[in-house]
Specification:
With 168 residues, the protein is α/β, with parallel strands linked by helices. The protein has two domains: 31 residues, no CATH class; 123 residues, Rossmann fold (3-Layer(aba) Sandwich). It is built from five helices and six strands. The protein is globular and about 55 Å long.
Length: 168
Amino acid sequence: MLTSATLTSNASVEFIRSRLGVAKADELIAESNFDFKEQALIYLPQGIPDPRDRGFAEAAAEEIIKLLNITQGRAFVLSISYGSYGGMQALRQLVEPEIDFPVLMQGEGARSGLLDKFRATPNSVLFTTASFWQGVERARRELFLRHHRQAALCRTLRPRSRRAPAPH
């Protein structure tokens, strides 16, 4: 049994089936209950250099600082890499001195512990790589800032309904 929010492509599982060598299988594609119109925003900053440019981290940090001040923290800042010029470490070093919110960072503890601390710390900001948050259950309203090339994707996640946890 395979489950994921990203197994389909163009409303089909044909791609993943062919990659796995599965000729025939029972399939169920469930619609998302995420309301993109109400719960998502894409923000495209102007003038951000290419991520390979040494000026990228400074420009991305400037935009992230603006967004964090608007949202009063409460954010994951997702980077495509750990190191490099525009990576998580460089962004933290540039952003942290310019904001008044508690800062946490991937690698400073176990994933579950960091997530618990993030949830328990008002207005906190967690710097992570994009893979860190995949599959993370979010129980409260949180903002995700992700920089990738010249786009910053901002998503405010609000639970649409409270559901009982699935039985184990």
